[in-house]
Specification:
- The protein has about 140 residues and is α/β, with parallel strands linked by helices.
- It is built from two helices and eight strands.
- Strand 6 and strand 7 form a beta hairpin.
Length: about 140
């Protein structure tokens, strides 16, 4: 179907402020809305706005499965495993500067390159254990 686009990704958490701060610090997301839903939320957006991330307070009454790492405390949190696991992906205009910022922040990551180094990808976890991928692919029109 023509015209489909990704609007937002939602992540539930027990600590909205911590997770929102991580995405603001790592990606430069900005808060866009402070709507009162009766539970804590943080709506974040890229600058300029092209994608939103909704950080939502976990429903304490929910029995829905959580992030993959909450299922078993013995799960190995190795970023190299994210290439074939649950994650979402963002593109950045300066891949090398982004990877440098991950190093400076002390965030463990795993890098992959494809097509003889033309495509670069880095995988890491947010503070809740959600998988994140960042690549140097061109922005889609």
């Amino acid at each position: 179907m023509a015209g489909i686009h990704l609007d937002h990704v939602a992540r539930s958490t027990t600590d909205v402020q911590r997770l929102a701060s991580f995405y603001q610090e790592v990606f430069g997301f900005q808060r866009t809305d402070m709507t009162n839903f009766g539970f804590e939320v943080a709506w974040l957006s890229t600058v300029p706005p092209s994608f939103s991330l909704h950080i939502i307070q976990k429903n304490p009454d929910s029995n829905l499965p959580e992030i993959p790492h909450s299922a078993d405390p013995n799960v190995k949190k190795d970023p190299a495993l994210l290439t074939r696991s649950h994650h979402f992906s963002l593109g950045v205009p300066d891949y090398d500067a982004f990877v440098k910022s991950l190093k400076e922040k002390g965030i463990p990551f795993h890098e992959v390159s494809q097509q003889e180094g033309k495509i670069k990808q880095v995988f890491f976890y947010d503070p809740d254990g959600n998988g994140v991928e960042v690549g140097n692919w061109p922005k889609r029109q």
